[in-house]
Here is the input.
Amino acid sequence: MADQNCLGKFPLADAPGYEEMLQCMRCGFCLPTCPTYALTNRERSSPRGRVALAKAVADDQLTFSKALKQEAYFCLDCRACSTACPSGVHAGLVMEACRNQSQAAMPLVGAAGKFRAFILQRMLPSPDLLETSMLPARLYQKLGIQWLVRHSHLLKLAPGWMEKAEGMMPELHPPLRPQLPDVVPAVGEQRGRVAFFLGCVMTLMYPEVSRQTVRVLSHQGFEVVTPKEQKCCGAPHLSEGDRETTRNLARHNLDLFMALDVDAIVTDCAGCGAALKEYEELLEASGNHAQLEAFRAKIKDINEFLAEQGLRTDGLQPVNKRVTYHEPCHLCHAQNVSRQPRELIKAIPGIEFIELNEASWCCGSAATFSLKHTTESQQILDRKLANIVTTDAELLVTANPGCHLQLAWGLKKAGLPQRVVHVTELLGMATRS
Ligand code: SF4
Ligand code: SF4
Here is the structure.
């Protein structure tokens, strides 16, 4: 008799959606959109192949194998296949669920397991600990040790991921979270009141970008409230197969933000926005559907929000730059926000906008993929860089810190001149003080 607590070989809790897997009619429309299939030409590394693997486990025809675990982590979760699929199959989400299952079936043990648990369950959920942990890296830069390391051959002796991680590190500044005022008033006639969700990578790596986001919102007529008690959105945990910690973080953020009297909850991080919008599904079992629906309706990516509200262009000063736009996967594929950033960029006077070929093709960042699969990540990035070169743009605009890190590093390493900026930095350049 079948075990009621299992879906085939998957424990029922957090098993991938069986109905979804059944929807796959094996048409292959997703194949040309999948970066890992394009690299390998291997069926099991395609959306269709990944769904078939997971379904075989759910049908009790296959044990939870190493192959499935590898595919779960080799998937970029870029969701390009979701956009292409006529049946509404989300292979990326199926693989995300398989990552969680793989931790149950084949957990990391020993020091590696303890390190993983510390990062996911202690460090990321604690903003104070996370911010303190960046102090050595800031000192490393400030004291000139980075300069010495980069000008020696030391990094050549380190594993490839370490050299890349070091190379990707932007110039670090004190974290933004403690510095942002609790409330920033609207400039001019007030149009509304919003809460700002400040992602971990934004506060630690790109504080100036989020400072511009708040400034732009304020100059666009919105009072901005930033609750300091907010925590990580849980995206890194979803990506690493720890749904339970994501749920804990989701409950905290949900209660915190829903207690505020705001029209919208705005974020400038595409990865955070996608994760926050998925709280509804993640906390479905709580039965609190009305609250979850209300929260979901309030979450807005900054591009989505400003385009919906209408950009106030009176008073914007010209930005005489030739720019192109790379679409973050978690904005265009996961949130269906594609038209809005282009509209905002084009609304800035003086901008010459050049459409990027394959703008919505992943850049190869994909959370920790860029460090776990450095060779494949570089191959995906090379395709992106080749497209950027043909635009002859001065600025490469994007809207997600993971893409920002990967693209800035790739451009610098390739000796290309483009500077990477967030959409709100561009709007910030156009906004008079
Ligand atoms: S995942 Fe969607 S697009 Fe891909 S083969 Fe299945 S039904 Fe077709
Ligand atoms: S999410 Fe991206 S990498 Fe994963 S199967 Fe879909 S297209 Fe391929």
